[in-house]
């Protein structure tokens, strides 16, 4: 379900999908995906609203997607043997993400 949340970073109300909820000392925090900006953000529970009927029917500008059969790689450095090899990784490196975004632009 899509909600409306206030993004502190963007300084505006945005449509969002709530992906996670966790408790903090001052209340609940929500992990959200902004469907019109393709960004993830954390929002306080006081900054979430139910989406009004007509606005819920507007198509999302951003969609979550994945690269088919593409696995993250990283450079493994062995200082003892003075070698470097590319191998599998659990997550994408920041440099790889930035390079991919530049290719898309």
Care to describe what's here?
With 105 residues, the protein is mainly β. It folds into two domains: 2-56, SH3 type barrels; 73-104, no CATH class. Helix content is 10%, strand content 46%. It has one helix and seven strands. The chain has one helix at 94-104; strands at residues 2-7, 12-24, 27-34, 39-44, 48-50, 73-78, 83-88. It has a five-stranded antiparallel β-sheet, with no helix packed on it. The protein has a two-stranded antiparallel ribbon with strand order 6-7. It starts with a strand and ends with a helix.
CATH class of the largest domain: Mainly Beta
The major β-sheet equals:
5 strands, antiparallel
How many H/I helical runs? 1
Kindly, what is the distance between the CA atoms of the first and last residues, rounded to a whole number of angstroms? 30 Å
Using the coordinates shown, work out and report the CATH topology of the largest domain. SH3 type barrels
Helix-strand string:
EEEEEEEH
Q: Provide the helix percentage.
A: 10-25%
Ranges where pLDDT stays below 50 over 5 or more residues in a row are none
Average pLDDT figure: 86
Any key phrases for this structure?
105 residues, mainly beta, SH3 type barrels, two-stranded antiparallel sheet, 10% helix, RNA helicase activity, SNase_OB-fold_sf, helicase, ATP binding
SSE map:
Blueprint: E1 2-7, E2 12-24, E3 27-34, E4 39-44, E5 48-50, E6 73-78, E7 83-88, H1 94-104
Antiparallel strand pairs: 1-2, 1-5, 2-3, 3-4, 6-7
